[in-house]
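> call design_seq(struct)
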């Protein structure tokens, strides 16, 4: 195996030593380089013996001296130096299978790549990992690894993921734990499948793993595009409350055993159950905030602290509007009113956008489309500015899920559109026009 160089950064170590596009890295200090993890780990020493297959077909060894941890400055065809691995499962709850046709192609890619788990925090099912990767994770002590567990019942995992190897793959999780690898787990809960007694079993098993540093439970997302897919029911007030009770029970068990809560229900469960979301102290260091665990609490707390720092003042006629998903409407409305109290002359209109694109059961802001915003706000008095949360945009911060740009949204509604980061400090600063 080798990885081909596609570019060499100007004034880099690699340029100084004569590396060229078209050359391939075969090994560093005798270690085969197969992808980005090998490359990033083995390039850190201050002296390297790099085996290179030149573009002319000659194999040479170049001894490189550099600062420890200094990057060589090489570029490759893809970030991974390899193709992303797609998911081989057909999970009954897969959100991508519930998306309409016609969206941009990248939205339909299901990744299940252990390298992305370490590099970007993606969750993997362990059904698509090679023995080489398992041994490398253990040998290099790559941590943490984020795992889509869903259930620790092997037979049920096979049923839910529709992959006959899904049950056996759980053994890898126990193997990594025994090797001292830090793990994070996720449970996508589906009523009648992996909740109730099955959730009790899964949490009991996971809480016994010393290196399972956090576990989140999130409700299945159900869109209106489920024709031909297995029937799933959404959580209601009672079933969501039962999940919370079970989760908090095992959180207390972990708190006594490890001094950390470790097990959390996502904010959606509390909202569905009509229960108050716990305070920030409950979430410790927010280990699963990327799964919607404690986002509400963190945003509220940081917004209120920011407001406490600002003295009351008055401005002349500032009217702005905000859009959000229905799940966070109550919070955004509360914080907006507190901003109005702090700044006389400020008027904030908050619009909860119903998700007609995916269906009204989808209530998070990150899945709102520009089409729904336009349909529901066109003709309304939005004031001088419309604030949208950054979660509604792709990572490049330019397009909504339906490929409509910010400028197109602005033109359609006849108002300036600004983007606010999804945290309380930026939210307050944007409303009050503070730096």
């Amino acid at each position: 195996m080798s990885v081909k160089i596609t570019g060499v950064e100007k004034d880099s170590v690699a340029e100084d030593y004569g590396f060229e596009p078209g050359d391939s890295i075969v090994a560093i200090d005798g270690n085969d380089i197969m992808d980005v993890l090998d490359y990033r780990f083995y390039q850190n020493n201050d002296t390297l013996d790099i085996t290179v297959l030149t573009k002319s077909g000659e194999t040479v060894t170049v001894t490189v001296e550099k600062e420890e941890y200094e990057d060589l400055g090489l570029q490759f065809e893809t970030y991974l130096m390899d193709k992303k691995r797609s998911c081989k499962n057909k999970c009954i709850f897969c959100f991508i299978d519930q998306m309409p046709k016609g969206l941009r192609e990248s939205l339909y890619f299901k990744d299940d790549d252990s390298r992305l788990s370490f590099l970007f925090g993606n969750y993997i099912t362990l059904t698509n990992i090679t023995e080489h990767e398992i041994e490398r994770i253990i040998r290099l002590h790559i941590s943490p690894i984020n795992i889509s567990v869903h259930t620790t019942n092997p037979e049920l995992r096979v049923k839910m993921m529709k992959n006959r190897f899904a049950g056996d793959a759980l053994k890898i999780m126990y193997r990594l734990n025994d090797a001292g690898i830090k793990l994070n787990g996720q449970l996508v809960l589906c009523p009648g499948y992996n909740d109730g007694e099955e959730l009790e079993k899964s949490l009991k098993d996971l809480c016994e793993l010393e290196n399972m540093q956090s576990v989140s439970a999130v409700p299945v997302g159900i869109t209106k595009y489920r024709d031909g897919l297995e029937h799933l029911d959404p959580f209601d007030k009672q079933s969501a409350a039962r999940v919370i009770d079970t989760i908090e029970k095992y959180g207390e068990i972990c708190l006594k055993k490890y001094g950390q809560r470790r097990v959390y229900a996502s904010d959606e469960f509390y909202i569905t159950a009509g229960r108050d979301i716990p305070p920030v102290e409950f979430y410790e260091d927010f280990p699963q905030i990327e799964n919607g665990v404690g986002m509400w609490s963190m945003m509220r707390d940081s917004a209120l602290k920011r407001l406490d720092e600002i003295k009351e003042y008055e401005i002349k006629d500032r009217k702005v509007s905000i859009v959000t998903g229905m799940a966070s409407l109550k919070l955004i409305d509360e914080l907006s009113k507190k901003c109005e109290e702090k700044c006389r002359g400020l008027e904030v209109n908050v619009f909860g956008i119903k998700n007609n694109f995916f269906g009204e059961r989808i209530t998070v802001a990150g899945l709102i489309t520009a089409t729904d915003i336009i349909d529901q706000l066109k003709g309304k008095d939005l004031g001088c500015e419309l604030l949208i949360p950054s979660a509604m945009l792709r990572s490049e911060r330019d397009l909504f899920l339906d490929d409509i740009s910010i400028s197109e949204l602005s033109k359609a509604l006849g108002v300036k559109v600004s983007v606010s980061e999804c945290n309380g400090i930026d939210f307050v600063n944007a409303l009050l026009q503070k730096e």
